[in-house]
Amino acid sequence: MFRSSDRGLSWEPAGTGLQGKYVKTILLVNGVLFAGTYCYGIFRSYDMGDTWEPASAGIPARYVYWLESDGSHIFAATYLNGLYRSSDMGDTWTACNNGISENTIMALHNFGGKTFASTLGSTVYSTSDGGDSWQNVGASLSGVKGFTDADGVLYAGSFGAGVYKSLDTGQTWTQINSGLSETDLWAIGSCDSALFCGVSSGAVYSRKLSGSSWSSAYSTGFRACVGSLTESGSNLIAATHGSGLYTTSNNGTTWVRCTTIGTVEIRSLLSGNGFVLAGTDMLGMFRSTDNGLSFSTANTGLGSAWIQCLVQCGSKVFAGTGESGLYVSVNAGSSWTAVSGVPATGIVALASNGAFVLASTTDSTLLISQDAGVSWSQTTSLVPSDKVSCLSICYNNIIAGTQNNGLFLSSDQGVSWSPVSAGISCNPEIRCLFSYNNHVFAGTAEGELVYSLDSGNTWIVHPDLLDDAPMLSLYTGGGELYAGANAGGVWSIPLSQLVTEVFHHTELAVIVYPNPADRFIEAEFPGNNVIGYSIIDMNGAVYAEGVFSGGYAIISTEELSSGLYSITFTSGNKYCSRQIEVVH
């Protein structure tokens, strides 16, 4: 939470009680501030945000979407749990859904002696008795995202149908879209004898209350907050916070928005062999089998609708939730099972090298599994103030990015940690990490790219910034390093400008068996291409190299010590990597 005392020209944190919490809605009632959050309920402040206290007694909902007051009551709209009402300034809450047949409330507004509520199913209800009973207003208003009123007229902004107005306190409605070239609205308000609405492209339109047409009030090009990036087939996929999911098959020249995910808040992405998973913060998991062009829900067994992070370890996929711990799937995300041994709390980051899995919780507890998620143990945590924001594994090195003190490295599976931010100014907040061969890339909250050519031991600062926009995600593909920025879209730089060896992420269909291996492994590849291979231990040392052709090779492992190795196959500028275990 932030606040401004100069009409938005400058901002400061509003106390520390809401730090790190997702605040969705704010309401001021009789000098008391209320904040509705995801996963943490409702908070209340008597000193304009200096201090906050919980005020959720009676509300079981995880997601508080909207707060409103009619002067006598406070109403809380929730996702999946309907409406709640408080008559004692938030001390206690009770459900008040009499007459409402849906359980997800999108917006609330008090006007003309009535309180209006819109639902996810495009129905609008009203109450004139303080929420004791609700009536369907009888008009089908598509996806109302918000209401406003001015000069005795009620307005509704919808996603898909533009703006409606009512001259009779919601009994009848008419559309007023003249001059409005976009009808997917996210916000509507009124000020200084004018209406304003914000649309999905990021543009803002205005309309004088006495006028008859909308005009552009702000049309600077909109660039989404790209929080996750991945690749599937020939498609680069970008997941955004607030603008949905997009794919491009021409390196970003044009993007296509996916319309089969029912929310615009995409928190995580993972691509595997024949599937793509997208985790949201309201509707759980979605799964694609056509390289991210279309998705369907994949929530069987999940106990959370907030999927914060994803990682794959062998044939298993792990999903970290915003508030309910960790889940695992053994069928590429078709169904899920809760993971025992992991606290039922928020998981902020996951990483795997195919041999072990690492998870970080909201309190920066670091957990490691060396048996693909069957059992877990706590590693030596960093200093509590070093709040972990992201993780990556490069060979045997674990790299942790923190919110307060830059980068840390462990080469003994989390037993001990060393700071490795030398040369990076001011130990910046690290927002994202990505490993590529023995290279690691990190993005900061200042929009700075830093990278390591030696598995995270030393770092280089790239001189260019992403317009000072926080860097939220990184990915390599097609010889490019892609970066997703906060309100900055997707950026790219040729990998050849950063590293000496560049391989495309196009997956070579190399099959390796047996695994574990004793004296040899067999490798199969369709076609007659010449394939180069390198066997690398978990410290990054190359133990063996060679080539084969004709689609088949026997590779000796007799001279290798028992342990875990990575075997990398390359053909032209394509490559793949497989984890193998040698047991003598």
What is the fold's blueprint, element by element?
Blueprint: E1 2-3, E2 12-13, E3 23-29, E4 32-37, E5 42-45, E6 53-54, E7 64-69, E8 74-78, E9 83-86, E10 94-95, E11 105-111, E12 114-119, E13 123-127, E14 135-140, E15 144-150, E16 153-158, E17 162-166, E18 174-175, E19 185-191, E20 194-199, E21 204-208, E22 215-218, E23 226-232, E24 235-240, E25 245-248, E26 256-257, E27 266-272, E28 275-280, E29 285-288, E30 296-297, E31 307-313, E32 316-321, E33 326-329, E34 337-338, E35 347-352, E36 357-361, E37 366-369, E38 377-378, E39 388-394, E40 397-402, E41 407-410, E42 418-419, E43 430-436, E44 439-444, E45 448-452, E46 460-465, E47 471-477, E48 480-485, E49 489-494, E50 511-513, E51 520-524, E52 531-537, E53 542-548, E54 552-556, E55 563-571, E56 574-582
CATH topology of the largest domain: Methylamine Dehydrogenase, Chain H
- What's the β-strand tally? 56
Structural class computed from helices and strand pairing:
mainly beta
Low-confidence stretches: none
- Average pLDDT, rounded to a whole number, is 88
Fraction in helix:
under 10%
CATH architectural group of the largest domain: 7 Propeller
What radius of gyration results from the CA coordinates?
Answer: 26 Å
Count up the helices: 0
Strand order in space, largest sheet: 3-4-5-6
Shape: elongated
CATH superfamily of the largest domain: YVTN repeat-like/Quinoprotein amine dehydrogenase
Termini separation comes to 57 Å
Largest sheet: 4 strands, antiparallel
- Domains (count): 3
For this structure, what is the CATH class of the largest domain?
Mainly Beta
Strand content: over 45%
